[in-house]
User: Fold this.
Amino acid sequence: MPAFTSAEYLAILLSLKVATVATLVSLPFGFGVAYLMTYRQFRGKVALDVAVNLPLTLPPVVIGYILLLLLGQEGFIGQHLLQPLGIRLIFTWKAAVIATAVVGFPLMVRSIRLGMEGVDERLIQVARTLGAGWFDTIVTVIIPLSLRGIAAGSVLMFARGLGEFGATIVVAGNIPGVTQTIPLAIYEYASSPDGDRMALALCLVSVLISVVVLLLHEYLNRRIARAD
Assistant:
């Protein structure tokens, strides 16, 4: 395996950073959307379901381009909200976080919904009968009994974030040391005449990280199962 330079180490660390931040930022929103879709009936529920799952069917490049149009200097959000505040997102690692969050969000919501749908509704009714409000019910009943789904959704999104390429390269670019993640570095090396060995080395690193993530997922599942 060839020796990594600082650029490769930065790509590895940035991939972990982007995937972690995207997962943590998305978790409360994913839980909220999953709760609405599972326990609430309201007009527009089908439209929300379609909107949440749309990134699963759209090519990541399309998602990246839409984000570029929205967050860029000429975009509605970029021009009217971000620029007056002096915030710049495009071609920064924060843009990579946003792209990763959007692409992986449906996986998180689906997993959390599956966990919530497995909760016995009689337990929720008992909690309500005993005087628990909706917030207390969420904290004491729904969250503990949905931990498997929450853990699975978080791990799936983190893993998806590690492999995100299409949306990231459009909205964040491929800037070494700034926005270049492992997939983008592999793409750059694979496109160069003498980059095969380094591309393969980064592929092995990516596989290793993925295996560790899957083992962690299995460990968390067993711990949660024992607690139940």
Observations:
- The chain has a mean pLDDT of 90.
- Residues 6-227 form a domain with the MetI-like fold fold (CATH 1.10.3720.10).
- DSSP finds eleven helices and no strands in the chain.
- The two ends are 44 Å apart (CA to CA).
